[in-house]
Task: inverse folding
């Protein structure tokens, strides 16, 4: 493999997609980068932010820029699992015989926007679990394959908690990154006005021509080497989030009930490989691991009662672990 050429192709493709998204999305460069990192790592993203910050537009524009199929599901309390994965219907065959025909749900797409996912019941939320992890759904005892690439971008509103169903830890753990969408600055608000209220609206150009090219770039990410010393830094960070571990950070011992899962360390490594490629390197550095820690671990750390009562956040826990260094 011609490593410099492969790295250059990946970086240019990543940047071109980001530039196309920036034509429509004002600001939010960290969010755009985080979504693309998760996408090329083969993971899913949980976007948290108040309504009106462009989360839906971001997902739709991503699908347009990459020439991929897109579907949106508005999660509501009366949404049923069959509304997402599909259902078997009785239809009449050629000779008048009744037969079962599977009607696919919106989950059979490349990029799925699960809007306000915490408004649906746990039964419906769990309908996503199998597809997110195994890339197939089971209906009536029959497995139906979900094509790749497959990306779930779920959104939730952190303010309106009445009538919502918090995501269970098992489902949270299946999200590669949790990204917090911030409110735009005054200057960015002017940019939003200029782009959305003028005569002409920005349009995006296609960057990635097909799914095979996406899968090829994903394969490149996994081929980036990582030495044991750097890999140990990722393990140290995750182990420091476990209060019962001897190397736990003091803040974890005080405020954490459960630390990050093994999926957390997998996310650290894969994201770090992408950050390395974006920095024109074909090897992973400890700084890449640490850059990936907040979005990869903030939703995988569960606070105890004392932590919640004192208003501690998982971001504070991750920051303290990183600040403590290898001896956390």
Result:
């Amino acid at each position: 493999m011609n490593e410099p050429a492969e790295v250059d192709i990946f970086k240019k493709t990543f940047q071109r997609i980001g530039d196309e998204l920036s034509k429509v999305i004002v600001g939010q460069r960290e969010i755009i980068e985080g979504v693309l990192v998760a996408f090329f790592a083969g993971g899913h993203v949980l976007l948290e932010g108040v309504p009106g910050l462009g989360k839906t537009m971001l997902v739709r524009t991503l699908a347009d820029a990459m020439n991929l199929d897109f579907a949106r599901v508005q999660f509501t309390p009366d949404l049923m699992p069959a509304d997402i994965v599909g259902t078997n219907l009785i239809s009449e065959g050629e000779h008048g015989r009744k037969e079962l025909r599977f009607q696919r749900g919106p989950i059979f797409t490349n990029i799925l926007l699960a809007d306000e996912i915490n408004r649906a019941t746990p039964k419906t939320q769990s309908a996503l679990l199998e597809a997110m992890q195994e890339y197939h759904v089971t209906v009536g005892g029959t497995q139906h394959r979900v094509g790749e690439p497959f990306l779930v971008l779920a959104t939730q509103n952190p303010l309106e908690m009445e009538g919502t169903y918090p995501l269970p830890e098992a489902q949270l753990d299946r999200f590669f990154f949790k990204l917090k969408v911030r409110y735009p600055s005054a200057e960015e608000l002017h940019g939003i006005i200029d782009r959305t209220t003028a005569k002409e609206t920005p349009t995006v150009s296609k960057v990635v021509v097909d799914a095979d090219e996406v899968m090829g770039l994903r394969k490149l990410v996994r081929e980036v080497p990582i030495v044991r010393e750097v890999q140990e830094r990722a393990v140290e960070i995750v182990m420091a989030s476990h209060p019962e571990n001897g190397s736990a950070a003091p803040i974890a011992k005080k405020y954490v009930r459960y630390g990050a899962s093994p999926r957390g360390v997998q996310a650290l490594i894969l994201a770090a490989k992408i950050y390395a490629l974006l920095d024109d390197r074909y090897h992973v550095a400890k700084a890449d691991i640490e850059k990936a820690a907040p979005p990869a671990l903030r939703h995988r750390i569960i606070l105890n009662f004392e932590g919640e009562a004192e208003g501690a956040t998982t971001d504070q826990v991750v920051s303290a672990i990183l600040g403590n260094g290898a001896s956390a």
Summary: DSSP finds 15 helices and eleven strands in the chain.
